[in-house]
Amino acid sequence: GFSSDEVIRKRLLIDGDGAGDDRRINLLVKSFIKWCNSGSQEEGYLQYQRMLSTLSQCEFSMGKTLLVYDMNLREMENYEKIYKDIGKHKNIIAAAHEKISECKKQILQAKRIRKNRQEYDALAKVIQHHPDRHETLKQLEALGKELQNLSHIKENVEDKLELRRKQFHVLLSTIHELQQTLENDEKLSEAEESQETQMEAEAKQ
Q1: In contact, 23 and 29? CB cutoff 8 Å
Q2: pLDDT value at residue 16
Q3: Residues 30-53: what's their mean pLDDT?
Q4: What is the DSSP string of 35-54?
Q5: Nearest-angstrom CA–CA distance, 83 and 153
Q6: pTM (predicted TM-score)
Q7: Distances (CA, A) of 15 to 40, 53, 68, 82
Q8: CA distance 145 to 157
Q9: What is the C-alpha separation between 134 and 29, in angstroms, rounded?
Q10: Tens digit of pLDDT for each residue in 95-136?
Q11: Positions of the region Disordered (predicted)?
């Protein structure tokens, strides 16, 4: 049977002593030399098992490194996509600002139309006192139709402006959520790196 010291040494070899790949390679070389110089079959088998365990640790460490590398590549691709999306949102915001500016101009025009309508109403009251002026009444009717058309234009402009305001508000909310997600991802990455560093430090002790 194995002594307690041999059991402890074998468990450390299998579980890893936290000294890194260089340490494992040194153990592998020492085990190989002891295996070559083993005097008994039992000792040779023990050294053979140690070499297999050390090789497994090296393969596991290499696999872990490759997984971390692949994960970092995927994160980089994800961040690049997010940055592109942010650029698109900036273009959308710029276009929204232009539309809002255009709507403001249309509102000013609608206000002028409203002022004209008030003048038309005042004129209509004056004309009503002179029903014999048939030509003036015809002109008033034409102006009334034009005023009605302009009133529809004003309502359409106000509806468009309200829609643009809602769209702009939704866009700003989306960008805020996107920025918050990026900050949370960055904090999570820092926490994971800190935890890995602490685990490595504890393993070396």
Answers
A1: no
A2: 47
A3: 83
A4: HHT--SHHHHHHHHHHHHHH
A5: 40
A6: 0.30
A7: 26, 9, 21, 40
A8: 19
A9: 117
A10: 888 888 888 888 888 888 888 888 877 877 776 665 556 777
A11: 184-205
Rounded to whole angstroms, the Cα distance separating 31 from 28 reads 5
Contact criterion met (CB below 8 Å) for 89 and 172: no
Quick count: other Cβ atoms within 10 Å of Cβ 46?
19
Distance between CA atoms of 110 and 161, rounded to whole angstroms? 12
The domains of the chain are located at 4-128, 138-204
Structural contact between residues 27 and 13, judged by C-beta atoms closer than 8 angstroms = yes
Whole-angstrom distance, CA of residue 147 vs CA of residue 141:
10
Closest to 106 (Cα-Cα) out of 154, 58, 63:
154
Cα distance between residue 146 and residue 190, in whole Å: 66
Which residue from 21, 76, 9, 19 is spatially nearest to 47, judged by alpha carbons? 9
Question: What type of residue sits at position 186?
Answer: E
- The H-assigned helical ranges of 37-133 are 41-128
Q: pLDDT of 132-151, one tens digit each?
A: 567 778 888 888 899 999 99
The structure tokens listed for 24 are 């494992």
pLDDT digit string, tens, across residues 68-94? 888 989 989 888 888 888 877 778 888
Residue whose tokens read 């990026």: 182
State how far Cα 135 lies from the chain centre: 68
Neighbours of 41 (CB within 10 A): 8
Q: Which of 173, 170, 89, 111 is nearest to 103 (CA)?
A: 111
Q: What is the DSSP letter of 132?
A: T
